[in-house]
Amino acid sequence: MIKEGGDNGGQVTIFIVVGLVIVLSMILFFVIFATDIVVKNPPSKVPRNFVEQCIAGSVSPSLKAVLDYGGSIQPATYIMKNDHMYHYLCYAEEYYTRCYNYYPMLNAHAEEQILTDSFSRVDECFDFLVEDYESRGFDVESEALDYKVQIVPGSIRLKIRKPIAATKGDVSENFEEFDTSIPSDLYDLISFTRSIINQEAEFCYFENNGFMMMYPKYNLTRFDLVETKIYDLQNRQTKETFKFAIRSCAYAPGF
Prior knowledge:
The N and C termini lie far apart (113 Å). The chain folds into 2 domains: 1-40; 43-247, no CATH class. By secondary structure, the protein is an alpha+beta fold. The protein has helices at residues 2-39, 47-68, 106-135, 186-203, 208-214; strands at 78-81, 84-91, 100-101, 139-142, 146-152, 155-168, 171-177, 180-183, 218-225, 228-235, 241-247.
């Protein structure tokens, strides 16, 4: 009888230990994965944060394309180097003639390119928000997206108006403006690019070493390819690089 009682006591002890292990495992799971659980909350829990993050992710590919292709998402005239399209911003078809600046309003052109390329993705961010509210039983009314892009010193400013009204019984949530910005040095990169273009158009030359002495924050490389000058203008801190090509005062073959 004493032996049987000892076995029962041992079994009870084992069950207690197993129970404690399970409880501790559950506590440990929630501690470790608490952040992931918060992140996976539906967008309506923190709608503005969700929309701002979604918009930034939607505009970033367009910004990178504008940097890579000299202000245009799909360059019309370009030259290839290392499997990369370098967009001609200043071009002279004839030999020994100065180039013509095809983009005197390069800043406005880049803004339009970013806007056009990212519009549908930005609009889709609000579709996700509306769908989430509807999945939770809300009646949702939304108006058309009004979206503007402004390239300003230090950032890309996004002016966004998208009226949304979500109601469920006595609960009502309304949104209208979702203005935000993305850090970028595109404004200054374009400003310096215009200076390069103007000097190439007037003097057929730009002193890149002198430029870097005056503006050590930037690295400017020029590669002479056939009858074209290829420029990479990089912000050393952000690593953003504006890439473009110029054909000005080109020498005829054999000269």
